[in-house]
Design goal:
heterodimer; A: 602 residues; alpha+beta; Gyrase A, domain 2; four-stranded antiparallel β-sheet; 15 helices; B: 420 residues; Multidrug efflux transporter AcrB transmembrane fold; Alpha-Beta Plaits; five-stranded antiparallel β-sheet; elongated
Chain lengths: 602, 420
């Protein structure tokens, strides 16, 4: 054998072993009773965890696509601005005869009974609303002023709502304990896939996901007798720990002391509170808020673990996100630390002023959809403008990101854009089971027919082709496992088609070799010439299929994508196995040490 | 010419040196193909306007049409007509009810039901509901927002109302809500009503009519909003267009311009005939079918390229022969490969068609048709067009230097020539 052959042998051997290793988790996932995961050697379990997921159509589950109902959100916003504008104009002149009407989704029309009064919509007023409204036209003769929502605002609403939508759906899904969920943004849609979900939970999960998120501000009732009592009731098994905290009021120096619970899982704390009954039960006018944060070790450094902590909150939320008009991340001019500034509208300012005055020095929890996002201490009366300074020591970059995140939450909370479901597939698990059995059978029959045909028609060389085909399947599945791709019904069709393609490449090459042999070439030169001349044909064939696959991938959705992925991966591995790898195997046959072969089994 | 080794044996069905006449008889084949294309195209308006019980150009799946498709397994026999009547009484007109054999044998009867609706609420019901809840206690409704097909209603009152009570009032007029929750600012008294999903509602309707427990299971539900359906249609059409365009670019790059039109016409031919097969059988045409058509395009190209590669190679070797003879020889030389490849792919997909389920089956059907027409088109459509173009643009330019008329060869081919 030539030296290069041995190098190839080493390379191909390594690739095959690697592929086989990648396959292990998938095999033990698909046949847990025959290959239990627990019995795998530990180095396998630790280093090779990625595996193929079964697609929705195979294991059952939910596939939902939501779009943000931007029209509704914009409409609400313009309604609100129109109301505020009317209040503002009438504030100085209660007798002003003004009709405020709406047109379409974006426009506000102000009609002054006395045309001259349209001058009340002056530059100062327009400047105040410049971020929100554009002046379309005004007429001094009819007294009509036409205003339109700034188009940037529409984009901002769409963008914010999408981001918030994804965030809230993720939180809700995490909370529901459904594993393996994927939530992705595709264009202006949110795609949610929940494989492996039982049919009996479809309705409740859909209800949970489709609900519109609400942003609320609630007061933390610190130093309460109730939490002290709760602290003494926490079981001492270490799952939930009791943490004290304290801070002093900035101006008066009045100290605040509180205790809260902390645990790795939110459910643990929820369960604990559910177990409290009678006089220990949570007071009706209070609730527990949960905040997820990065854990810290004893030295105060961040650890990768997530922990949940509680806040004891007053239930009533007088202030909600809809009163916010704006929120931004910027920098504290004195300390240079990142902070979040926000603005309330007229009504919001009044509520906020009362709320902050009454609760000076306490914490105010910013809650999105049952989760506490942040709980800053109220350090002064907040009316129309407020800011949240991020406390604690930490990496400035991280603090800034945190501030940005809070600003985004506040901004999007200012307008709850409802999600509208546009596409839905739900598959019961039994359906999946049948489908798998049938698909396996169909695939088995198809593959077996091909294997037998190749053996009959090309005999010894057919065996090489079959080995190459099996290796191709092995590599394909290994790559799919490494990408953690999901296998769908069309994906299985893709696998079977790849078998067809592998056969095609082999037939092209073998027919070429036969031709060369008929011309009287020795097996060795015939194999060389055959592979050489067939290369471009095989290559072209693969490229055209690849093109079709790429287009499928970019335009397809859901299961079609699964098909495209298997097709694309298959095309690449197939070129490798049916060309280079089988060429190498042929080298063994025709180059055997000793007498050169006179004939070839092909 | 050298002789092969006396002991070298092959298992052959199509003997080498076959010389079937393909090119000279092309007009019959092209004629056949034109007839098939015509039938395919005529079927589309026939389906839409003439044939009873069809009503659409193609039997669009819900993913294109918009609406809801459900599989329903029943615990007892129910006639399709009764089921349809039940649906129309519940306000779902024109329900498509098709009986199918449940492969698992779990149920007594099973149906695929297709409805135009995606939400339980019809226009009329919405009006009725609005009437019914216009007064809640002492609060007055002053905004009722619902868009057709939406699974949510937004309400606004002048005073706070009790969400639970609102839910009861709605269900009194047959509008079942999953939940009612406050929405927006507290001082605006807005409420968000989430309706129950269509499948739960249908289950309830059927059980109420045919007895509790009639619906054994609803193993699969797919619902597509009208807008999403349009988007998917657009994406499907776009993907076909892009695939064709990209393949054309590749062909122009790898071969020369003469080879381009033949491949593209062959590919369109295959796409049209495959769609035609769906028009004739009125099988459901869904996103998966589009995927299959794209795959067929890939395979058909593959076939055409194999033949063209050989033509290109032979054209440079057999300069003394007329071009149409070169084409005929090339088709014969690649015949064995063409037939075997197509046959294996055909049998693999046939197995999927016969033994597969659902999506796989539709996909396999499209592939079966596509493989046959794809093989046909690479021989009888693509090659004649190539010959025709060659005759028109190359052979007519007698004065042009000979070398310029040769098709461009790939690098590797050039090297082979040099060796020989």
């Amino acid at each position: 054998m030539e030296r290069s052959w041995w190098w190839k042998a080493l390379l191909y051997g390594l690739v095959t072993v690697l592929a086989a290793l990648y396959l292990v988790p998938t095999v033990s996932y698909l046949w847990p009773d025959k290959f239990p995961e627990a019995k795998l050697p530990s180095f396998l379990r630790e280093n090779f965890k990625k595996r193929i997921q079964l697609g929705l159509d195979l294991q059952g589950g939910l596939h939902l696509v939501y779009e943000v109902n931007v029209d509704k959100a914009v409409n609400d916003k313009v309604d609100r601005i129109a109301g505020a504008l009317e209040d503002r104009l009438k504030a100085n002149d209660a007798a002003l005869d003004l009709a405020v009407t709406r047109e379409g989704r974006d426009e506000i029309i102000l009609t002054f009974k006395n045309p001259a009064q349209q001058a009340k919509v002056d530059d100062a007023l327009l400047r105040e609303y410049r971020r929100q409204l554009d002046l379309v036209d005004r007429s001094a003769t009819t007294g009509v002023v036409r205003l339109r929502l700034d188009p940037d605002q529409v984009e901002e609403i769409r963008d914010g709502a999408l981001r918030q939508g994804i965030e809230t759906i993720r939180n809700r899904v995490d909370k529901s304990g459904v594993g393996e969920a994927t939530i992705i943004r595709k264009g202006t849609d949110i795609v949610v896939e929940l494989p492996g979900l039982g049919a009996e939970r479809f309705e409740s999960i859909k209800r949970m996901i489709g609900r519109t998120a609400q942003l609320e501000f609630k007061i933390v009732d610190d130093g309460s007798e109730y939490m002290k009592k709760v602290a003494s009731l926490v079981p001492r098994d270490g799952a939930i720990t009791i943490q004290p905290e304290s801070w002093t009021e900035k101006d008066s120096g009045k100290p605040h002391e509180d205790v809260y619970l902390r645990a790795k899982s939110r459910e643990a704390i929820e369960k604990f509170f559910e177990g409290l009954t009678g006089e220990n039960a949570l007071p009706a006018d209070h609730e527990i808020g949960y905040e997820e944060s990065q854990g810290r070790n004893d030295a105060g450094d961040l650890t990768p673990d997530k922990v949940w902590r509680t806040y004891y909150l007053k239930k009533r939320a007088a202030l909600t996100g809809e009163y916010l008009t704006n929120a931004d991340q910027n920098w504290d001019s004195q300390t240079g630390r990142p902070e979040v500034s926000f603005e309330f509208d007229h009504q919001g300012a009044a509520i906020s002023e009362r709320m902050t005055r009454e609760n000076m020095g306490r914490k105010m929890a910013v809650m999105l959809d049952d989760n506490v996002k942040s709980a800053p201490v109220i350090e002064g009366v907040i009316s129309s403008r407020g800011r949240i300074t991020l406390g604690g020591l930490g990496d400035p970059m991280q603090l800034q990101n945190e501030a940005k995140e809070i600003a985004a939450v506040l901004r999007s909370g200012a307008l709850p854009a409802p999600l509208r479901k546009t596409f839905e597939t739900q598959v019961g698990a039994t359906m999946g089971g049948d489908a798998i059995a049938k698909a396996k059978f169909a695939m088995g029959i198809g593959a077996a027919a091909v294997v037998i045909f190749m053996l009959i028609y090309y005999r010894g060389s057919g065996l090489i082709a079959n080995i190459a085909m099996i290796l191709n399947l092995l590599f394909m599945i290994a790559i799919l496992a490494a990408f953690e791709a999901s296998l769908t019904l069309p994906g299985i069709a893709g696998l079977v088609l790849t078998v067809g393609m592998a056969v095609d490449a082999n037939i092209i090459i073998y027919e070429r070799i036969r031709e060369e042999l008929r011309h009287g070439k020795s097996p060795r030169t015939a194999v060389e010439a055959g592979f050489d001349r067939a290369f471009w044909t095989v290559f072209d064939a693969h490229v055209t299929n690849f093109v079709a696959g790429v287009v499928l991938y970019s335009y397809g959705s859901g299961p079609i994508r699964g098909f495209a992925v298997t097709l694309l991966v298959g095309i690449i591995t197939n070129l490798f196995t049916s060309y280079w790898l089988s060429h190498w195997m042929f080298d063994v046959v025709v180059n055997r040490r000793g007498a050169a072969r006179a004939t070839l089994s092909i | 010419m050298a002789q092969p080794h006396p002991k070298q044996k092959f298992f052959e069905i199509i003997k080498p040196g076959s010389n079937f006449e393909f090119v000279a008889n092309e007009r019959y084949w092209i004629g056949l193909s034109l007839v098939l294309v015509a039938i395919s195209l005529i079927m589309l308006p026939l389906n839409a306007y003439v044939l009873k019980g069809r009503g659409h150009v193609l039997n669009w799946g819900v993913d294109f049409r918009g609406g809801t498709e459900l599989m329903i397994e029943l615990s007892k026999k129910v006639e399709p007509g009764d089921l349809r009547k039940a649906f129309s009484d519940s306000g779902y007109e024109n329900a498509d009810v098709v009986r199918y054999t449940d492969p698992s044998g779990r149920s007594q009867d099973s149906y695929i039901v297709r409805l135009g609706a995606v939400s339980i609420l019809t226009e009329a019901q919405a009006k009725q509901a609005q009437q019914a809840i216009s007064k809640e206690g002492d609060a007055t409704l002053h905004k009722f927002e619902w868009s057709e097909g939406g699974d949510k209603i937004y309400l606004r009152y002048d005073k706070t109302v009790d969400p639970e009570h609102l839910k009861t009032s709605l269900s009194a007029v047959g509008v079942n809500a999953l939940q009612v929750q406050p929405f927006g600012r507290p001082d605006e008294h807005g409420y968000e009503v989430t309706l129950v999903s269509l499948d739960s509602e249908l289950r309830r309707d059927i059980d109420a009519r045919f007895g509790a427990g009639t619906v054994q299971a609803i193993p699969q539900v797919q619902s597509v909003g009208a807008k999403a359906g349009k988007q998917l249609q657009l994406d499907g059409a776009r993907s076909l267009l892009f695939a064709i365009l990209l393949i054309m670019v590749y062909i122009a790059f790898r071969f020369d311009l003469r080879y381009g039109p033949g491949t593209v016409v062959a590919l369109l031919h295959d796409a049209v005939l495959t769609v035609g097969a769906f028009a004739i059988t009125y099988k459901e045409f869904s996103l998966t079918t589009v995927a299959a058509v794209l795959t067929i395009i890939g395979f058909s190209m593959n076939d055409t390229i194999v033949v063209f590669d050989r033509i290109r190679e032979n054209a440079s070797r057999m300069r003394d022969k007329a071009f149409d003879r070169v084409v005929n020889i090339s088709i014969n030389e690649t015949l064995s490969r063409t037939i075997w490849t197509s046959a294996t792919v055909f049998f693999v997909t046939l197995a999927m068609n016969v033994f597969g389920v659902g999506v796989i089956r539709d996909f396999a059907f499209a592939m079966n048709v596509g493989v046959i027409v794809g093989t046909f088109s690479s021989i009888f459509i693509a090659s004649p067009i190539l010959i025709w173009l060659n005759r028109k643009y190359v052979e007519s330019q007698k004065s042009a230097p000979r070398q310029a008329r040769e098709p461009r060869r790939p690098k590797r081919g050039d090297m082979d020539e040099a060796k020989a």
